[in-house]
Amino acid sequence: MAVIVEEEKCGGCGSCIDVCPAQALEKPKPKIKIEIIVDRCLECGECISECPNDALRFPF
Ligand code: SF4
Ligand code: SF4
Fold it and tell me: Which CATH class is domain 4-57?
């Protein structure tokens, strides 16, 4: 399990990348706003709290 991003809400600010303790969030290309490396996510919720656009959530 991992967080999911609602692409239409994400502004690509990168704040979630900075707070993730597991390096589970990346911006691999300029065109991609945010990519989640599912296997790395610890489900800590830090990124969800950090996102200014409410674009991240757990899928349950
Ligand atoms: S829930 Fe935690 S481990 Fe998972 S992507 Fe967000 S900050 Fe990283
Ligand atoms: S913090 Fe939110 S708006 Fe910013 S890149 Fe992450 S998901 Fe997108």
Answer: alpha beta
Give the β-pairing of 4-5 and 25-26. unpaired
Return the domain boundaries, the chain.
Answer: 4-57
Cα 41 to ligand 2 centre (Å): 15
Per-residue pLDDT of the chain (60 residues; tens, 9 = 90+): 899 999 999 999 999 999 999 999 999 898 889 999 999 999 999 999 999 999 999 998
pTM of the model: 0.94
Distance between CA 58 and CA 31 in Å, rounded?
24
Distance 30 CA to ligand 1 centre (A): 21
